[in-house]
Structures
1.
Amino acid sequence: LQSPVIGAQWATMSHICVTPNCGKSATLRCPTCIQLGITGSYFCTKECFKKYWKTHKNLHLLAGLFPFHVLCVFIEGKCMFPTSELDSIFDGYHFTGPLRPAKKTPFRTVPEHIPRPDYADTGIPVSEREAKSSHSIIALNEEEIEGMRLTGRLAREVLDESIAAVEVGVTTDEIDQIVHEACIDRECYPSPLNYFNFPKSCCTSVNEVICHGIPDQRPLADGDILNSESFNSFYFIAL
């Protein structure tokens, strides 16, 4: 590790010193943090830097052990590894773990000949709301029951394709594309798409995200736990 004094660089913006119980305005940056791409580690003086060095240098060791998209280290309550330019949008949001939002690709389209639900254009599931407010139990006829069987089979096929694509380095957005194209190939509408304005064709919930995660361009990492959900026509949900 580089000496905490030699090579220290001065920044142009004022920040708060990260040394515990200091709280002074700080502009001095750790040169090793600059090399590693760690943001937010500022010090008020070289003396404060040296005082906190034993603890601070552990941050450099962690950065060498874990890829940035897996690890989010907090110093004084602030994330030291912002994962994307979306950080400013979520500034002040209380995250429950290290996972952070990444960039999303544009809204995918569905061919006009494929039947679509009432929310496909507006985002509002009117028929669903009406059914819930009716307080009645609907008994399906034979044709509708057969439709449920077909829906379950197609949903199983689509889910199998999405599961087969899961591996380290694959983004959840790539999985969403596979789900979307698999639905189109089977002449069915990917039901999550635009449901209450949901922007993707499936939900991919990683680690501490319990459900309804939005697919994005974050690569899956070794050890990630992934929950993929897709539902079609009669609302098949795969958990």
2.
Amino acid sequence: MSQAAQLKSVSLERVPSLEIDYMQLDDIIEKEFNNDKENLIMILQAIQRRYNFLPRPALAYLSTKLEVPFSRIYGVATFYSTFSLEPRGRNIISICLGTACHVRGGERVRERIEETLNICDGETTEDQRFTLETVRCLGGCSFGPMVKINEDMHGRISSDKADKILDPYK
């Protein structure tokens, strides 16, 4: 599937109330980053902070405002794994499956959280509350298995208690 076809297939049905605030995009593009196309990555980060993903209409608007081809913006947005073209949950769960976490049960933690939320790696719950992703290292190897929820780090998570760490985020 071509990159353009992939982008067209991004479903906004999962966020029915999504409305692009073009005045807010103007504030980001003009006031924060001075219409400078050299700041493209930082602009994309700001847009993603606002919507929790990069909506196609916002990317198209950015292309027009910066006079940068849409294909270049799309290329940057798909190159970096930190960007998402799909709607993401309010809470991002990152489960470490690096070597240290893996040997200490990281896979079992992932399986337990997948069962609890009824989603797989890379998916978002229907209520847009959680997105689950696996990562190769969270930098806490001696505390594995590690789980990061938003900016909160949780270490030495056992599979039988993995679902409990989600409670404060529900």
3.
Amino acid sequence: MGNPGAFKRSLLFSALSYLGFETYQVISQAAVVHAAAKVFRIEEILEQADYLYESGETEKLYQLLSQYKESEDAELLWRLARASRDIAQLSGTSEEEKKLLVYEALEYAKRALEKNESSFAAHKWYAICISDVGDYEGIKAKIANSYIIKEHFEALGYFHRAEQVDPNFYSKNLLLLGKTYLKLRNKKLAAFWLTKAKDYPAHTEEDKQVQTEAAQLLTGFSDKN
């Protein structure tokens, strides 16, 4: 009948191979489920974050996203950059805290860009945060890090391009468009953009400041007419 020992070893090997395959299938399925759950979790966090942002809950938003600061998701990271910056803009934030938050925001935006170079939002907030950091590093760094705009027409082109890509993406962009047209003595278009800035839904402290400045500028040149 042959070698009984060899036959038993063959059966044992076959059994172990089968068990190994079954284990592999279980592990593979578990990995797929885990990956799907992770994606769902990120989407859930982003949904919560967007709700808090739209509700103007700046501090709650920052607390939520800070829990995931080690994330590698670009969508989460640029939102965290924005939230850090918004906390820095709050009137109750000390100058020391503001500086730390500004640099923190830049780091998150940079990481978001590294994770997804095609993300317009990551590029947008990286540029904004770089400009903020320039305020602490002097004029040379500010010029080196930011878009160099020499003439009002160049500025106008930049602001319009940003607006075309993502309309009303940033309240300050609307304000800058209005101020640029004021300097160009085009009061009709200045009024158009300043009104949009004044009426922009205020989600952050900066949005409120933009509303106030836009309203003052509108009142100022209306009184001169």
4.
Amino acid sequence: EEEGGKNAITFVQNLLDLKDRFDHFLHNSFNNDKIFKQMIAADFEYFLNLNNKSPEYLSLFIDDKLKKGVKGMTEAEIEVVLDKTMVLFRFLQEKDVFERYYKQHLAKRLLLQKSVSEDSEKTMISKLKTECGCQFTSKLEGMFKDVTISNTINEEFKQRVSSAGEFKQRVSSAGTNLCGVDIYVRVLTTGYWPTQSANLKANVPMAPRSAFEAFRRFYLNKHSGRQLTLQPQLGSADLNAVFHGSRKDESGVGSGGVGGGGGSVGGGGCASPGLVVGSGDGVSSVAGISSSSSSSASTVAVAPPTSSNGLMPSPSLPAAPPAPTPAPTTSAGASPSGAAVMSTGKPSGPKKHIIQVSTYQMVILMLFNTRDKLTYEEIQNETDIPDRDLVRALQSLALGKPTQRVLVKSPKTKEMESSHEFTVNDSFTSKLYRVKIQAVAAKGESEPERKETRSKVDEDRKHEIEAAIVRIMKARRRMTHNNLVAEVTDQLKSRFLPSPILIKKRIESLIEREYLARTPEDRKIYSYVA
């Protein structure tokens, strides 16, 4: 089992197989004896909670089963597996930690449209609601509500744009086209969604930014007093690309560029781009997520987009900004969304693709409109993307699967240093017309991320313990220390098991803030201060 703990899916599947094995023994050899059944349950609860990663692993396992593309399993078979998973969930002591991870994974499935079906998602939430109550699932249900409301808002925005003359625009099935960019924005309630506590930044190109600003004006006119904040880490984009194959200019150096709209010329003195990327006609680009706070105290978040998959609309933060005018000679067969300049070498023939990337990756690719080569430090300074996210984005673009390497890194190492250089991969080729750049990310959290999650959980627990203490004392008025600790533990055990030391600290904090007081005759008895 220690070996299986290195992989979330394997770890949980091994536990499920082990549980099936013991249930078989219990039924066939021990006639479902009650004492044996209780012993099996107690032992499973004990060793499941020995691993402090169990809440994360259980959520990852469910995430894997609820994602699109799970081969060889029908919805009915998935539900059977989820029912078994709920048995393990009942053994879990840190259900509040599981809730935090589940919310993160559900958010990604909804925003990236990866759910196997909405019915399966709601069935799972119903199981959790039955097990833990409506308070446990209220935020999860709120996320689905936001998605529905966002669809309505975007439809209204589309109608407004189609009747207004403020922009040169058109409306498509994928989203609303402004400045050559199809945009679809999701408005998310911050309290429901696991958005970052600090606003993450990214220097989004002008065309996507302008399209989002148009939506911002529309939204704030309808909801005065609210605030929209772009959350680029949650968005995605579809880019229209034309690859002209490997070729060399007079100096013998291959060249490449990325452009939007009508095409662009590779920068840095490069004779011609080997790649042109743009938000061409019919290509929906996706925006990052933004959050908005409502006039009341509740905070709302706007999520611009996840890229469209051709089956349903997807959020989108504009893909590519309008590009500079291409050089006079253009290659034959270049698409309307991007034109390539002929070089002194002979191109192998243009290849058109739609590249599906994250908003961060879009921001990086658009830098190559004006530059032939960029160092890691230059990309970092010009994009303003957080270092951890920038490393992952560049690894996906340059070091991912061979059929997904849009950029070339020099030297070809996984490590990122400020002097390492990146260029466009002129020789990029793929059998697929629509190429999705898979994100390079750990299946589970890294150690720093896990510590940050634990820190947030500990902070939430302080408030939950204090709320339970106040509820109990308000009803009882006077209680001994031991009785209060026992009742608080009993109230919170469905979410987590608070230690007596932690409860004592929260009691002391409430006494300092004059919510409680010690009685003069016995300091171990507390009284509620009205």
